[in-house]
User: Fold this.
Amino acid sequence: MKFTVNNLISINCRHITALALIALVGCATPEASSHNTAEQIQSAASLANAIQFHTNALPAEAAPAPDHLPLSVALESALRQSPELQIALSRVRAAQADARQSRLWPNPVLDIVLRVPEGGGRTMIETGLAAKLTQLLQRPRRISAADARLRAASASAVTAALEMMYQTQQTYFDAVAARQEVALLAQRAARLNELLKITEVRLEVGEGTQLDVVSLQAELATANLDLREANRRIQTAQFALAHLLGQPRGRTDWKLATPLYTQVALRGERGAIAHGLRVRPEIQAERWQLAALEDAQALARLTWLEGAAAGLDTCRQIAK
Assistant:
């Protein structure tokens, strides 16, 4: 018997309505509220504008840094040019997609069976709509596990931002300290050179000794070596800072306007440890990973239901 649209019309309207409602419910549930990782990073770094994920590759050379380079500008430039941070943000995007996917109901399977009696009689049409029982029962845990992985990815992205900020701050102050050291060593070499000239004049007039001249010459040679080594360190620090700013071939003669920190406010050891355990993103990431593992363990307990399905069936006889 050929199955046509006219045969379908004869099916009870109540069953059609029920099947349609189940199909609509099986599409999706409201999307999960994703953690705004960009705003968390913006707050942690005190940025004016949030750092967004870029679908395209970062430029090989960023815009040149200003002549006056305070630490805040260096931190923002380093964060916006950080490939590690972009990788972490891409993982957050992937976790968000998984969280949305976990909220989708399993696709229902529609079965239509026609039974034609061999000896004649009415044709029977059986319609069934079913979904995998395992996926239905696992859905709450899947949502919980996906949300935990999303929170872990978000905390890991904030951790990557903090690590980049720490590296930039350390490199920035290395360059500041190296410049100050070079200035002090240059003054020392200049003073020793003046003393050497005075000692040589005293030796010529018979008021000094050759030993004094040789000693000052040795000290001056040592000071020049120290100055050369300090210049090498300052070049290394400035090149490292330029690399973090996304300008590996750019200039390095900025005016580093933020001075070295000489005093840092510290709280009590016990309070600092307790505060760190509460707010440090890397610790939060591990906690959410453990929560996701607990959900995965709970999901594994339902694997014995693999292959089972739940749904409804309807049967209708079609008159000849």
